[in-house]
Protein 1
Amino acid sequence: MSNQDLAKLFRNVAAAYSIKDEKKFRFQIIAYQKAADTVSNLTSEIIDFYKDDKLNTLPGIGVTIKSHLEELFKTGKVSHFEWALKGIPEAVFPLLDIPSFGPKKAYRLVKEFHLNNPKTVIKDLEEIASRGKIAKLDGFGDKSQSDILRAIAEFRLGKGKKTRMTLPYAMEIADKITSYLKLSKDVIRAESLGSLRRRMPTVGDIDIAVATNNSKSVIEYFTGYPYKERIIEKGDTTSSLLVSGGKQVDLMTQPPEAFGALLQHFTGSKNHNIHLRELSLKKGLSLSERGIKNLSKKGLPIQNYDSEEGFYEAIGLQWIPPEIREDTGEIELASQKKLPELIKLSDIKGDLHIHSNFPIEPSHDLGQNTIDEMIQKAKSLKYDYLGFSEHNPSISKHTSNQIYSLLKRRTLKIEQIMSDNKDVRILKLLEIDILPSGNLAIDDKSLNLLDGAIVSIHSTFNMNKADMTERVLKGLSHKKAKILAHPTGRMLNERKGYELDWSKIFEYCKKYNKALEINSWPGRLDLPDMIIRMAVNTKVKMVINTDSHAVLEMDNMKYGIAMARRGWATRDDILNTLSYNEFYKWLKK
DNA sequence: GCCGTTTTCGGCCCGACTGTTTTCAGTCG
């Protein structure tokens, strides 16, 4: 059973509990939802945690759920889940994927209309609604009937939150809307928050906070946004739009003197906020987006905070960088004022993964700009060094002698440029395929032309975890191989990537001075943040590269930095914060 | 059902919006 299947099963159990007795099972419902979130965010398969007896290390998985999982992996089923799901028609569950459908509404409709086929339930319900039968039910009306029809139509088109945006795309939409908002005289500040501010690799919806003394006017202005498809909701202080492209934008407002609490609330994450609020309750404080209520002093007005720093300070915490607000230990450290100083963009001294258009007839895509153009860009970024690492020349189209002469030409070109240019030091690298056998794609004679090699997987992704780990370790075993590029091979929204045995990879990297790449390409963002965090904890060194195929892409470094920060990396964890001499020394180690 | 720098028992975040209702249930973030 895949992680996503298991997460779905947990959510179904939670939904079944909601339908049967929401009050009685209130905390079980929360527990199963949390377990579902945990499982769906794992970076390796849940069954591996079971095999290694590590299930109890996962947040939200305690004694009971652990024993259910053990039963699942031993027998293929869980008698408790069968009991919990008993009496709930299977057709309820597909409806839960549609926005605005919760367990109660889905169950009610399935029961009323005897919808028993989970494969056709959405279409069946649509037919019933279009024949006007839902409006006649108690508690429903014409509006809810037409809302259901629209919800189904939008769900089919993949609108709303179903498909997640890459970071740059989300930033572009957010910038457009905040710029629009700032044109209103009532908007004092407008900021994009939520998962975008936390720099999640993908973003589901855009969250925007506005400071204003006239919420009503701002909401009017917001809902008049010219590029909207429709208004989802419109209240006194908050509103939501569906904008063109089918993405949802949520707006919240507060007066400027209370804006700090809103920033904090709307940045999240949900788990971070829940933990913060539970912690504060124990101190007699109740937190919300409006401010802080002192529960022991009844009648006292809510305390306002204009800044987020002030809000965190009021509950005895150090300000926490948004990227790590995921409730994975940051609150505990902030209360001791011991948060690490996360890496910043200005710490970066060089980029090692650059594809120029120098014609070495590579196995994969060539860059679009010349070596000189890339160096000029590096200069503007104030880098001390730049590593050229085009893909190796194609091995199916060239003999090893031809590969050598292609690389030799590139070497001469780089050396000529180096003699003319003293501002940016240049490293002669190459991105080399690790073949399915684990061998590198080019031979030692060619490899000896290089200062070092970046190695990576570009074919035969479907190997199992043990074999892929062997393959990667064999690839890294060459003396010149120093960096493993885009280590999981994932492509966001496209492919999951292959599995590796991280403890083996980490151990090897430490022992033989190899580094893992954090690839800043927005469609990759690979390593994933959780694996960066593991690498940081085990003191494995990393580099942050852009993998640029064009000058403009060299600005993508900020996305890799964001991932490194999400993984709690400091300057010391990242090798391309080193000076040229120190980095070169590491390369030759 | 989970969890622990007040607790191994007894807690468990907080608020907004909508539709169908005359005070609330359901959904969402």
Protein 2
Amino acid sequence: MASDGAEAPRVRFSPAPSGNLHVGSARTALFNWIHARKTGGTFILRIEDTDAATARPELVDQVLDTLRWLGTEWDEGPYRQSERADLYTAAVDKLLANGSAYRCDCTTEDVDARAQAAGRKTPGYDGFCRDRELPAATSTAVRFRTPDDGEVAFDDVIRGHVSFPAADVVDFVIQRADGSAIFLLANAVDDLDMRVTHVIRGEDLLNTVPKQLLVMQALGHDLPVYAHLPLLVDEGRKKLSKRRHSVGVNEYRERGYLPAAFTNFLATLGWGPPDGVEIRPMGEIVELFELADVTKSGAFFDAKKLDHFNGEYLRALDLDAFVEGVARFLPFAIDDRFRTLAPLVQERCVTFADAGEMVEFLYRDEPEIDPASWDKAMQGPAAEVLDAAIAEFEGVDAAGWNSGRLHEVLAAIGERLGLKLAKAQAPVRVAVTGKSVGPPLFESLEVLGRDATVARLRAARSRLGPS
RNA sequence: GCCCCCAUCGUCCAGAGGCCUAGGACGCCGCCCUUUCAAGGCGGUAACGGGGAUUCGAAUUCCCCUGGGGGCACCA
């Protein structure tokens, strides 16, 4: 890398501080991070909070926290645009001075009204104030003067050559009337100032490139290389919306997904390793990753596939790590009973949050009966099974109360009643755990203990009524 | 309305002119294993949007159409 003497790459992730980081943003952050690691470059974090109206300083920490959880640690920053206003003002002054920008006092209403009067169907500014030479005032914003003809073109690492007719790029605001900078300006100035070499971001920003290129050129600097990632879309192929989906990374974090599984999955959205092995350590992904290999079309965030990834990662955890990780998702403290069942629970979890469901029966005085499970299990010879189980289990002495023994006992009962073990265990399972699914029954009963087991069987039997 | 981008199984990726009767993964279906449920094993379903052109040969190149998406703010 950098054998041509070029400087090491510098990339940046520049989220707006909107709190709960969007999964699409997380993917963008990840790809930036991967590219930096791959190339020995620097990953810069910059918070884009130039809009005082929407900036929520208190939410910045949440973004940082999420990034840390994902493992996409930054090398430089975080910078905050709200603290760099002088830089933007200086840039605007320079553009004003060299004729690249001018003041404008048109309101949005003025612009729309003129467009309507002129019968134009294309929205946008018409250059009304270009030559009015307005003085600075509290009501004037600053607009960038775009070329009237020619084209603005660039080579995107992922998309190839992209060009726009310059005439379609209307004069745009770079500084608000209150003197604050607009994203287009701040973003360009910062990329220049931070010597960013590769701008890796979502495709929704592809259309802003010409404007930013124009600003950068007017400021007289070398231009960064752009790479626009395909958007993450919903099942309707629309940009993932906060309205209808769990698009916040925090939701996944709270539901017990593992950061390694989550980032591994994100890495397969818009990119795939050449050998087709999708589930693998991030270190390998970093090695294999090439920005130019990124796909061009939108990718659906498939929660089912994420679940599969997470299940794989969860099962790969050693037992201690699983127990430690699952702890904060359980509504009760980890004890020996949980530890005993843990290996069986781990095998059956997709996320940490699933574990509680499987063992909660241990921590209640009485099982919470699921009606559907009850109806299904308490049919046919259920009463006989329960009666026999009560009688037999009661006779097992405390020292012999273990899963192997219980297995034998219930198998014998089943045999006597002409039932397969699977059938015979159903009423017992529901009576004791309240559900028709869960960890293996005999291990569960062993951990629950004889007295509690028998008490629950009796309770279920009486609830069942006379046979 | 205008501009830009995109187009392989339901989904995510492979495929950079012959190796493709298109491969892997998730999902789904079936079978096996089995103490329920998972996990695991085995098998199956399923795609190159349409039309031209180039070529001996096109999923791969070019053009048009269609379809989808994104953008066009004193938001980012």
